[in-house]
Structures are given as structure tokens and as C-alpha cells.
Design a protein that fits this description.
The chain has 295 residues and is mostly beta strands. It contains two helices and 22 strands. The strands form four sheets. Strands 6, 8, 9, 11, 16, 17, 18 and 20 form an eight-stranded antiparallel sheet that branches. A seven-stranded antiparallel sheet has the order 7-10-19-12-13-14-15, with no helix packed on it. It is globular, with a radius of gyration of 20 Å. The two termini are 28 Å apart.
Length: 295
């Protein structure tokens, strides 16, 4: 089909699986996100196509554990939120610099250049999330990396930015001044890097774990994350202050819980490893389809 509208996914027991068609090319490569109840080595599911589906697909159900998901597939303007929560990421600052470019998962969003500031902003006065356990993840490519450039920032008190004095070093912060630094030379060097920041709050403290390209590179104790999560920004401080980051972003996600190191590694692998999924060929049923397995 020209839009992928006839495509359906089923579990091995025949249960329908929620999915979202991100990009569709009937003659080339398409990108579809499928929600699996279990995701581990050997998990199998079916892709079925042809005919007229009996039931419409709720694409937003794929992202039910998330506050916001931004595929960054738009050529310009606002970046839509795939969760259905209406939290579009809107260009701010030098908006003419916020344009679509090639990324690891199709089109990505360049928020600024090395000459002009620009960033993406989500939310304003209505809380986007009131919890203190949170995970921010996504693909980031720095076009030029200098001190104090802000990559992610939320008014709930947490942020991720380049260190103020050490080359190659970054800081994951929360409320207060217990802000540990760690090295991530791959990101500093201008390579696409998948970053996962996971904050787990217990009482007045929080544990922050940082994963880069599927490998944990830091775990530190911080003050508890705040609850006034009104505004989230990519590429600058949430109120437009601080040092902007000339960066490109792709597939950014804000999840309303802390995640394990294994989850962070799997999220990276689904996009970075071409062999993550294995097609086993046609189904032996009265409909066209493929059996797909997770390696």
C-alpha cells in the first residue's frame, strides 16, 4: 500500500500488536515501530499485509510508557509528539536554522549552526510530567563541542551539558550542585551517539545512570529530581538561557520511569544493529506475511 495502512503485526498467539508507521516507502526502506509485550533473544512476531484490516491501529499505544516521543522526521517547523500527548517540540531562537538533515533513523533535526543559536522547546506552563523518576534518551551529534553547551534541560531541575573546564567531559545534573562529570569522547568528537539519562529518585536523593551507545559510562548519586517539569528543551536551557549547542537530534524520548542498563542497551541496539531483527520468511497461512525474530 502507498501508506502502509494495510500492514498489521501479530504475536505468535495471534494477538494484534500496536505499531506506528514512522516513514513509509512502498518501493524502498520503511521504518515501523512495533510494541512487543516481551523483547528478548528469540522473541518472534508476525508482519501481515494484504487485504483490508478489520480494526484500526492506535499508533499512540506504542508509546504508552512515554511522556513524549519525537521522531524528528519533519523537514522544518514543529516536531510532532508520537505519544498523542500533544507535546510538539517547537523551534525557538534562530528558527530558520532548525531544519531536517540525514540522521541514523531517517530525517533528524538540526537545531542550530555554529554561527547562529537555535533550540527546540517543549511545554510552557502546563506540567508535562509530575514524577521524579524519569529517563531522557535519544541520538545526538555535536557539530562543534565547547564548554557548557546544553544538550537536554528540563525545568524539573535535571540537565545534560558539556563540562565547563574539561575537554571531552559532560555533566548530568539534577536539583542542587551534586553534578558528576564523566567522559564521552565519542559525542565530543562529533559522532552520532545514543545517550540515555535515567534518574531514579528515593527520598531526597536520586541515582543517575548515563549510557552511551549501549554501554554504561557513569552512575552517580544526586539530589532528588524536582517535580515542576513544565518545560523541556533540546539544545539550550529551557528558558532560552545558557550556551546553545550546535547539534543534530534524532529519535528523542522522555519516559516516565527510570530504566535498567539492559533496557538502555536494547534501545540503542534496535536502531544501531542491522541484525537485531531476523526475517524468517513467509508465513504458512492464508494471508501474506513474514515471521520476524529478535536475534
Amino acid at each position: 500500500a502507498s501508506t502502509g495502512g494495510e500492514l498489521r503485526f501479530l504475536g505468535v498467539d495471534g494477538t494484534a500488536l500496536s505499531h506506528e508507521v514512522d516513514t513509509w516507502d512502498p518501493t524502498g526502506t520503511s521504518l515501523v515501530w512495533v510494541k512487543l509485550p516481551i523483547c528478548s533473544h528469540g522473541t518472534a512476531f508476525y508482519a501481515v499485509y494484504g487485504g483490508t484490516p478489520r480494526k484500526a491501529v492506535d499508533a499512540t499505544d506504542v508509546w504508552s510508557p512515554y511522556v513524549g516521543v519525537w521522531h524528528m522526521g519533519e523537514a522544518d517547523g514543529a516536531c510532532a509528539d508520537a505519544t498523542g500527548n500533544g507535546l510538539a517540540a517547537t523551534p525557538d531562537g534562530a528558527t530558520e536554522n532548525s531544519v531536517g538533515v540525514e540522521g541514523p533513523l531517517g530525517i533528524a533535526r538540526q537545531s542550530a549552526t555554529t554561527e547562529a543559536a537555535g533550540f527546540l522547546k517543549v511545554g510552557d506552563t502546563t506540567p508535562i510530567y509530575n514524577g521524579q523518576n524519569v529517563t531522557m534518551s535519544g541520538w545526538v551529534k555535536m557539530l562543534a563541542c565547547n564548554y557548557n553547551q546544553i544538550i537536554f534541560a528540563c525545568s524539573g531541575g535535571w540537565s545534560f551539558y558539556a563540562h565547563g573546564s574539561t575537554k571531552g567531559s559532560f555533566i548530568a545534573s539534577a536539583t542542587g550542585n551534586r553534578n558528576p562529570s564523566f567522559n564521552c569522547g565519542n559525542l565530543w568528537s562529533g559522532n552520532w551517539t545514543h545517550i540515555v539519562l535515567s534518574y531514579e529518585t528515593k527520598g531526597s536523593d536520586a541515582t543517575c545512570r548515563v549510557t552511551a551507545n549501549g554501554v554504561k559510562i557513569a552512575s552517580s548519586s544526586l539530589y532528588a529530581v524536582g517535580t515542576k517539569n513544565l518545560t523541556l528543551a533540546f539544545g539550550r536551557w529551557y528558558d532560552g538561557g545558557g550556551t546553545y549547542a550546535p547539534a543534530v537530534f534524532d529519535e528523542l524520548r522522555l519516559r516516565k520511569e527510570a530504566v535498567s542498563d539492559a533496557f538502555a542497551a536494547a534501545e540503542y541496539k534496535t536502531a544501531a544493529d542491522a541484525n537485531f531483527l531476523l526475517s524468517l520468511g513467509a508465513l504458512d497461512v492464508k494471508k501474506d506475511g513474514l515471521t520476524i525474530m529478535i536475534r
